[in-house]
């Protein structure tokens, strides 16, 4: 496992962020996450200005690991890299995007949920997959079932993760980290509730720690 992926895995949770106003929100949000012990963010290309957000977050918090999510094209990988992104997340498994990221030496976590996806991911030499959308695709039970024929993978489930089920996921050794938007919802960001975001991050880190130690 590469250094960036290892660091993400140590933190254990990855906020999935959609910023409508990066100039206003990227820097205070980055600080709020870091204050809560979650020095990592997946900034999705679902919103225009994602690259700006990545750049601003990295400038404000250089030690924070900032990646690009919902990446659909090689042009977006270029844009993310130019902004300082350190990992790429794609909603599905696209061999072209995987190979392109590998050439550029940036970790990529493609969304995989089926045995066929896992087969292709194995041939592409991947070690860590995004399992998306997690809850809607069978959740932890499916992740564990997939781990039987494919024990070489660790996964990052996202989709339906919350404070309620985070501990259950984090307990499983197949889980590298859990992603989610529950600590960075549109309401929290649009209303600049930075203290609440920090608090949710602290709670998440505590849940992961307890789950892993228990
Ligand atoms: C993602 O892109 O990873 C998901 O949209 C995050 O899912 P959530 O909003 O249910 O946490």
The profile of the biggest β sheet is: 4 strands, parallel
Chain-averaged pLDDT = 97
Please give the oligomerization state of what you see. Answer: single chain
Q: Number of helix segments?
A: 10
Low-confidence stretches: none
Order of strands across the main sheet? 3-2-1-8
Count the beta strands.
8
Q: What share of residues are in beta strands? A: 5-15%
Shape: globular
Task: Name the bound molecules.
Answer: 3-phosphoglyceric acid
Give the class from helix and strand content and strand pairing: alpha/beta
Features:
single chain, 214 residues, alpha/beta, four-stranded parallel beta sheet, two-stranded parallel sheet, 8 strands, binds 3-phosphoglyceric acid
Layout of secondary structure:
Layout: H1 3-11, E1 13-17, H2 22-35, E2 40-44, H3 50-60, E3 65-69, H4 74-83, E4 88-90, H5 95-103, E5 108-110, H6 115-123, E6 128-131, H7 139-147, E7 154-157, H8 166-171, E8 178-180, H9 186-190, H10 194-213
Parallel strand pairs: 1-2, 1-8, 2-3, 4-5, 6-7
Helix pairs in contact: 2-3, 2-10, 3-4
3-phosphoglyceric acid is lined by residues 16, 69, 132, 158-161, 179-182.
Account of the 3D structure:
By secondary structure, the chain is α/β, with parallel strands linked by helices. It is built from ten helices and eight strands. The strands form three sheets. Strands 3-2-1-8 form a four-stranded parallel β-sheet, with helices on both faces. Strands 4-5 form a two-stranded parallel ribbon. The chain has a two-stranded parallel sheet with strand order 6-7. Helix 3 links the parallel strand 2 (40-44) and strand 3. Helix 2 runs parallel beside helix 10 (194-213). The longest helix has 20 residues, at 194-213. The radius of gyration is 16 Å and the shape is globular. It starts with a helix and ends with a helix. The chain binds 3-phosphoglyceric acid (3PG).
